[in-house]
Amino acid sequence: MPVDSLLKTVFLPLALFIIMFGMGMSLTPADFVRVLKRPKAKCVGLVCQLVLLPLTALGLVVVFGLSGELAVGMMLIAACPGGATLNIISHLSKGDTALSVTLTAVTSVVTVFTIPLIVGESLAHFVGAEAEIALPFGKTVIQLIVVTVLPIGLGMWLNRAKPGLTRRMGGTFNTLSVVFLALIIVAAVLKEENLAGHFRQVGLPAALLNVLTMAIGFGVASLARLETRQRVTISIESGIQNGTLALGIALGILESPAIAMPAVVYSLLMFGTGAVVIAVRIARGRQMVCSTEG
After folding, report:
1. What's the chain's average pLDDT?
2. Dihedral sign for Cα atoms in the order 256, 261, 266, 269
């Protein structure tokens, strides 16, 4: 079997399935119940992630004059939910981990249906009817359910049946998520013939999407007068998306390395901004401890 075919038919679906299964292992039905209780922070987070994030991406596409597959790629990364990586970043940043998990749980389900709508409209608008790639709504929904909702459901079932096992396996699956992301980025780079040109075009917009949405999330949460831990979490939820899922859709479903380029840049950058947030929060925590002891 050719390498490209093996990547598309075996590796990418398997990688996405494993990543979503690992996410499901960290979720319980109680995570969804929390949405109904004290909903203010959850509503702010969902508005930032499901509304303001795609609008920011669209604004950047217009401002930078992006067109074609690169514009679609920007909308794709904005349409994707968060993932296990941002839950870890939120936890290490001393954010509200329960809020992070709840938002991830809800957006993981909602975006199964919003991704085809956003990306389908983006393809129609930016690529046009004569494009060689297309996004059949029904087929794409089924594919996304298979690689997202199904493994998340199985992971939740295992977490309920064997909670001790899922706790022990959680670290392994988080590591696999990072490894798969790295491998998919390498695959996207190797498959793209005009890498340097696309990187010049989309590098700054993708970087700004990451930084601006984190700032917007923190700002909106501040205006809503949420506590600092919740502001940090909503900032992370707004600005760090599931790059692995975006790359998997771009390469495995849409079969377009060009559409994957914004996700490549975004994925590389989000680890840097996530590390900065963690470092700042840890430093402030130490300063508060020293002030208290003094």
Report:
1. 76
2. positive
Confirm if 48 and 220 have CB atoms less than 8 A apart.
Answer: yes
d(CA 43, CA 215): 17
**Backbone dihedral region for residue 52 (phi beyond 0: left; psi -120 to 50: alpha; all else: beta):** alpha
The token pair that represents 102 in the structure block: 């709840």
- CATH number, position 188: 1.20.1530.20
Domain of residue 191 covers 3-293
Q: Which residue has the higher pLDDT, 32 or 54?
A: 54
Q: Which two tokens stand for residue 186?
A: 């390498």
Report CA 68 to chain centroid distance, whole Å.
Answer: 22
Element (H, E) at 25: none
- Average of per-residue pLDDT across 234-242: 85
In this prediction, residues 163-179 reach a mean pLDDT of 73
Please say whether the beta carbons of 281 and 232 come within 8 A. Answer: yes
Of 256, 274, 84, which is closest to residue 187 (Cα–Cα)? Answer: 256
pLDDT digit string (tens) for 246-259?
877 887 777 778 88
Q: Tokens 């109680």 appear where?
A: 30
The distance in angstroms from the start CA to the end CA of the chain is 66
Q: Say what the pLDDT of residue 140 is.
A: 55
pLDDT in tens, 4-20: 555 555 666 676 677 67
φ/ψ bin of 242: left (φ > 0), alpha (ψ from -120 to 50), beta (otherwise): beta
Q: What sign results for the dihedral spanned by CA atoms 47, 274, 99, 243? A: positive
Structural domain count of the chain = 1
Neighbours of 166 (CB within 10 A): 20
